[in-house]
Amino acid sequence: MHGILNCYDRIVIAGHLQPLSYAKGMTKYLYKEQIRIFDYKEFAQPLCDLVCENAALIAQEHGVEIEFVTKSNETYIRQVIK
Prior knowledge:
Blueprint (H helix, E strand, L loop, with lengths): L22 H10 L7 H22 L12 H8 L1
């Protein structure tokens, strides 16, 4: 394996979170939990921070560098994974 690329538009959600993997399911969940769509960022930020911290810790333990790519750049990505 040469590398792993991850980004939020390519996450595969399976198991008990499947209902959250499409817009209507997520909307239903937020409504049930009484979370306004405009408050979603504040709702999700602690989990996002936890995931980022855990990823950084795992990467550090394995001597791997995490690089955030802000634009979809297929040429750059191909160079990185070669």
